[in-house]
Amino acid sequence: MSKRILKRYLPRGLYARATLILLLPVITLLLVVSLVFAQRLFDDVTQQMVKTVAREVRLVLDEPEGSPVADALEIERRRVSEADMPATDSYDWFDISGVVVVRELRGYFPDLARVSLSDSQVVMLYFQDGAAVTELIFDRRRVSARRPYQVLVNLAFYGILMTAVSYFYMRKQLRPISRLAEAAEAFGRGRHVPYRAAGALEVRAAGNAFVDMRARLERQIEQRTLMLSGVSHDLRTPLTRLRLSLAMLDEDEAAPMLRDVVEMERLLEGFLAFARGAHGAEPEPVDPIALVRQVVEDAQRAQSPVTLIEAHGEGQIALRAENIRRAVENLIGNAVRYGTRADVSVTMTDKSLRIRVEDDGPGISPENREEAVKPFARLDPARNQNRGTGVGLGLSIVLDVARAHGGTLRLGESERLGGLCADIVIAR
Questions:
Q1: What is the pLDDT of residues 287-313, one digit of tens each?
Q2: Strand-pair partners of 286
Q3: pTM exceeds 0.70, yes or no
Q4: Structure letter (DSSP) for residue 90
Q5: CA–CA separation, 428 vs 349, rounded Å?
Q6: Is 108 within the bounds of a domain?
Q7: Domain count, the chain
């Protein structure tokens, strides 16, 4: 429990944590040294100095008034009225050694009436004998160390200086890690950022491993795209010949076979869309609300029962517009295929973009949602596949698009319509 509470208040960034690791021992050392120094300087040293002055004060008090002893010891002695004596002991609130001075003097002189340290240059002692009041004045430097704060100021100055030097050095060491994180995040969003491994040996090894991994993934993506594009392209030629041959047959006899050809062409389009994936042009600033509204209007013109029910937020976000359009179209197509209506909503905040598509169909059970986003997955009982045909690439393409933008696809149950609720969530 305590670990969770402590973790909540610790910084999350690498720079902030490294700075905390750097500052914590420096500040702790400064505090310890300052406390030890204050105890020695403001307590022990002051006690020794007050002890010496107390002997001199006792000599002056034992001599009659006008004795040359006071002048020799540089202590001014004079008679004052009781009204001139302060009501209480006085010293400045920030005078740390003043507390020790007053305490020690009262320990040496039980008959001491008042001690005044208000004037930081002198010490004024008042001894009362009946109605007579004797005032003794001597230099404050005789009971307090000169410039006692100088050591503390030096400690603070050099502590800050060394911390700044260490911070700039640490920042130089952490910069390769930050560059590696930026390159990895950009690759997760489908962008290729130039990166060269640098820094310490461990950081350099991690950077080289990332570069190798990125190269392998890019080769795999390219090979997948080329393979599926080649297969889909080669199949178009025989399908075209079949369509031409069926066009020469009797219309009633050829109609079922033409439907099969159309279905095969649709499947090929799905393969090509999956082959293209979420990669392509670099992201550009796009108004996602306007983009989704246009997709909904296009679907409505195609007589699809879809409605844009909510659109909150404003501004632009870097997106691959065509890929987002394809993802939203896939979600709307699935919604109207397995239900009777589709409701679309868009919400933009300072941190994220959420595009939600809900339907009133049978939905997908929680245990099947992970399987549903896999390529070529077909969940017959969950999505009532007898109402539509496909190869199971719709949700997989949507997930690819979301991940290429640094987001994800979330599947759940629609509270409004009771069917499937699909959210594309992208961080801004």
A1: 989 999 998 988 888 888 998 888 888
A2: 317
A3: no
A4: B
A5: 8
A6: yes
A7: 2
